[in-house]
Amino acid sequence: MLISRQLFQKVKSINEVRNHGVAVRTRKNNHYLKGSLFCADCGSRLSIDTAKGKYTYFFCLGTKRGRGCTHTKHVAAANMEIQVEELYEDVQMSKDTAKKLSKRFDEELISKQSTNAMEKDLLGRRISKLAQEQTKLLKAYYAEAVSLELMKKEQVRIESEMATSENRLEILNAQLGELREVLDLALEIATQCGFGYKAASDNVRKFYNKAFFEKILVKDGKIVDYEHTDLFHDLLSEGSDKLSLVGPAGLEPATGRL
Fold first, then answer.
1. Which of 56, 119, 170, 255 is the one with CA 20 to 30 A from 127?
2. Residue 170 falls within a domain, yes or no?
């Protein structure tokens, strides 16, 4: 499974706004579906506008910008709102499936903890060895056994290897607890998303949409397809029985993937 740090935070944000009512700064035409709807013909985003001060609708930016898109239909925002509510009902996970996945996560977590413990031991030894090399190098330099040029070159190598090892150790220490937290939360949300989304405020709906979908594709005023984010694609796909709790890299820093 691939889980980016950004997606990890999106999933946690759903829980935060549900439980604490965190406000989202509003701007003109900042509809909660804006940024989630895309044209199935040309791939452009659907933007939003208001006619006569009361009729709010979505339209294809590709058509407006002369990209040869044939999607000329303006879609009432209220129409799209209903269709997205129905989409969440369609993709909602059954509780039985969630229980099976949770059990599998428990089994894999135990296995991964053992693997991580061995790797952390090796990394600890590697860091200790590098520190010893660094001390010996400095002593050799002060004893004039190595040149300044060689000393600097070796210092760069040691510092680079130590930084890599320390970064990996930090990842291993954080990954499993954080990962299980977001997976448990994702399962909870996935089994409740149908009625949860429908009952949610506009603020919370925006977080749902960003966490669940990369794109919701629209053609002739109808939702015709969608692309889940990595996490919910794996959780909700028919092949979820092949889902793996963690990949080899672990939960990476901001730009990394799991």
1. 255
2. yes
Report yes or no: 221 and 73 within 8 Å, Cβ to Cβ. Answer: yes
Q: Which among 21, 30, 14, 192 is positioned nearest to 98, based on CA atoms?
A: 192
Structural domain containing residue 112: 95-191
Copy the structure tokens of residue 225.
């397809």
Tell which of 158, 175, 191 closes a domain.
191
Query: Could you give the maximum distance between any two Cα atoms of the chain, in Å?
Result: 84
Three-state DSSP class for residue 228 = strand
Distance between CA atoms of 172 and 119, rounded to whole angstroms?
A: 8
Q: Is the pTM of this model over 0.85?
A: no
- CA distances from residue 2 to 28, 165, 198 in whole angstroms, order as listed: 35, 22, 28
Q: How many residues does the chain have?
A: 258
Beta strands in the chain (DSSP E): 37-39, 46-51, 55-60, 75-76, 213-219, 222-228
pLDDT mean over 133-141:
92
